[in-house]
Amino acid sequence: MTATNALVVRDDLGEIVDLVLRGAEANARHDLVRRMRAAADDVAAALPSGPIAEAVVCALQSLEVDLRSRRAELADPGRAARLAAEARHAEARLRQFQERTVRWPRVLGDALSATDSDIDFAINNWLRALLDEGTVAIEEQGLAGDDLDRWLRKRLVAETVAVHRALRLAAQEIGEQVAASIGLSEPVPPVRLDLEPPAELVGYIHRGPRALSERQALATRLVGVVMPTYSGVMVALFLPRLLGIGMSLWPTVLGAVAGAVGMGGAAVAGERQRQRSRRNMESASELRSLVDAYRMAVGKRVRDGVRAVEQQMYAGLNEVVTNESRRMSATTEAARRAAGESERLQEALADIELDLASVRELRQRAQRLSWAG
Asked: Which positions, given as ranges, span the membrane (predicted)?
């Protein structure tokens, strides 16, 4: 082969490779596109034309198979009816989805309101049980002051952990509920709650100065003890005389001492019991005050958490709904185009016949170049 003939063969082969590359791109055959680009590089590098032409022939055969399959698909008698039904189904799905998306803000609002109510109800029930438990501990164990404060804070931290867990679980369930009510195909982005540690929330609750009741004056307390003692002595001295019972000195003295000890001891025991009851009442009042302060703090935490869930959920749902609507609109439009193309069946079949003829011609040219190479 002379240099002039080799140049002509290379130019002709380059033209065929370029045409096959365009056909591969038009038919979305990415594998053939890569092979033809490699063949174009080989032609530019002046490599032997035989292997290049054989690769072109294989690519043309693959394109011919695709075109014949496409022709058989278009010639299917039930294809037009099937495409029309698919287009109607896609339009109905899009219309139903658009009708459901109008309701998702209300569904989200109802779910958030229910979550707020449920968590608030659970907190109140738990705090009521905590008050009952604390009251029993105060009466039976004498919890007061720092001991009561440590006992209470340990339980409040555990309750705050449970509240945080309930908020995160509710956020996940709300997303799933709204997505299911709309019919979304992709999940809602997860909500990220930036909640401070439970110990810090409980740490904001400070125990103020104890409002101790005024202690009775010493004279008053002495009177409260001395008077019953004196009464006991008087009863022991005058009761026998009142009843006409004659007693010697020593039995009378012993009776007076016994009466004084009995009445005075009862007065002292009663005073101690009153002081213990007063301390328990003060501790119970302090417990209720701390619980009320915690109720306000955790209530604000729940409201802030629900508000954060609402903001993130609204943004995430809006994005997901928009993406889903665009995807379904694109699917519906593609179904409409396919149904419209089925009405131009003869034109499409004629175009395929022309493409098949071009492929056969190019294959013959490539085979001749392969034999020549």
From this structure: 222-243, 249-269
